[in-house]
Amino acid sequence: MRVPQGLVPLARYVEIAADLAHKIVLEEYQTGQRLFGRSSLAGQYHVSPETIRRALSLLQERGAVEVQPGVGVVVRSKSAAEAFVAEYSQQKAIGEMQERLRSLIEERNRLNEEIDILTDELLNFTFKMASRLQKIQEIRIPENSPLVGQTLASSQFRARTGATILSLKRKGEEMFSPSANTELKGGDLLVIVGPPEAEQQARLLAQGSNSQPNEES
Asked: Which residues contact 204 (CB under 8 A, 6 or more apart)?
């Protein structure tokens, strides 16, 4: 989504005009009262006399003050000042909301970029691991298996086969995640999970054909 550019920041002379109008509304400047001269106002607001001139011209256009030759700037209408303050407040509020929206959209775009990058990394990793997808298999322990009487730990089942035993089924009962000291018996059905080659290694081990561990337990 395109980030909105937002309103142009209100000029300094507009802010000064709004402040003067606010003081008129609060009756710090009464109707008919003469305002300070441009130089005094310029010093008060720390701006140039030209900026003050533009602020007063704006208020005069809205009917809040009047420039009288030989007299200066005189407060003309409190209601006009109120209308100007209301308009200024609306413009300021819209500008703040638009700036907040712009900031949130930028943050959302940044998060979307991070999500896209992480998604690509996850897909790449998944594809690389596709050849190592693990399968669930069932292995029966023969009655004459060399594993009979051994525990899962002493048999080094995982080290020799690369498979993890999910459960052990025995005489209608099933033990999930059997502990390392579980003793194997003839007829036990092992539910294992591991890479494709793990099934063959497990069958060989159960039959007594796999005697060399391929890693330390």
From this structure: 210
